[in-house]
Hints:
heterodimer; A: 453 residues; alpha/beta; B: 63 residues; two-stranded antiparallel ribbon; 19% strand
Amino acid sequence: MLDVGRHPNIKLLAYSELEKLTGEAGNFTATVRKKARYVEEDKCTGCGACREVCPTPVIDLYNEGHARRKAIYSWFAQGIPSTHTIDPDHCRVLTGKKCGICQKKCQAGAINFEQKDTVLELPVGAVILATGYDVFDPEQIPEYRYKEIDNVVTAMEFERFLSASGPTEGHVYRPSDRKVKAEIAELDNKVRKSLKGLEKFEKDHGMTSAEFYAAHQNGSLNPTEALEKDRDKWVERYSAHLEHETPLLALKEKAKGFKSAKKLAFIQCVGSRDLRFYPFCSGYCCMHAIKEAIISHEHDNDTRSVIFGMDIRAVGKGFEEYKIRGGNNSNIVYKRSRVAEITKDGDERPVVIYEDTKEQKVKKEAFDLVILATACGPVKGAGKIAETLDIQMDRFGFFKTDPANPLDTTRAGVFVCGCAHSPMDIPESVAQASSAAARAVQAVMKKTDQKAS
Amino acid sequence: MKTTGETIVTKDILVLGGGIAGIQSSLDLAEMGFKVYLVERLPSIGGKMAQLDKTFPTNDCAI
């Protein structure tokens, strides 16, 4: 990634979108809109001081919604370019409110609320389409109760949990437990505030609020004149305080029993190899599940994983060995089955209902966390990309190619690689990307030769 | 690059998408001496792979 930012032959246009492509192979004109970041790219040093003072939290999609970022942000810590960006939908200044604290804080003077989009016209000879994919939305399978049960997550969300730079700093805490902890933090804040409000009464009248309230309740209070004056207010404030403190103590008691998730279920083919959605195999999810199970076991040796799949497709160099190693060394059990439903028990634990095809029995088992291997689908907005480039899509929304020229789209000079082509894993994407580069070179060299002669 | 003929011809190449595929294509082309424009929709390149903790089958770091 760093090499891309540094290479003299690469002009990196991040936070930009293609608007139009006219002309023909060897002689295209690409219209690219470079969106305003409201931060000057050549001045921003990426120090992050602006981010620290920004008062507006925004859901962080890089962490799959499990963390908050600020309205001024870098997409992720090591991002290239390291320039920060202001989110125009959430920034207080850009939504017409008063703020600008980041501008005051920025020592480089990089923040520019007046920045405008710039539109570039680029002459290019060939185009490589590497727009990637988006994962299948598991809410389309209601029996898996994604979003309904907190502890059912997607493989990508789980990936963020495992990451040391992720929302749980690499610990596999259950989302339901994290929700309780967030509630505790919120109530803690309220209780701290209400305690402050009670302090004055306690000091003035020389007793604790609890003592006062008990005496008030059982009628043993001998109020002085001053106390009689404060009495109603004190009662009111203390009742309000109890309203927060009582649930807070209960939640704190509950949180004492929280442990990291140690029993994991991986459910394969969520949306793929399913005639209701995508009939094809996504290719990488079996290995992805095994990898996540191995890493979880590395983090915590007590972790046990069950991978529920119709079969484990480990078809790549070194993949089968990896699968066997996982089974032998990382507490992974491969269960041939198709999960019918996920329900929940009293302790927020997801219960997997499945048929064990070996024993031909329907079984039920509770897990700490369920991880859904969501299918690889076409990128959101693929239709718009196809329209802009004037190319065709296949019936699933991937870009159409010819089996004899697998990287050529329906428009000459436009090539496709990676998951924009079809689902594939990283090594295959890399190999295809190099092939697409070679095809693009052939296209521009051929055109140049023809024109020169 | 331009020729003196009627049509302007350029060897520059546009890569759409800055995930692992787009990055690899861009680097290959750049190393071969071609000028590349790499267009990415998000503020930083890296794509889905930048979200991954480790990659199989070697358990190497993704970024």
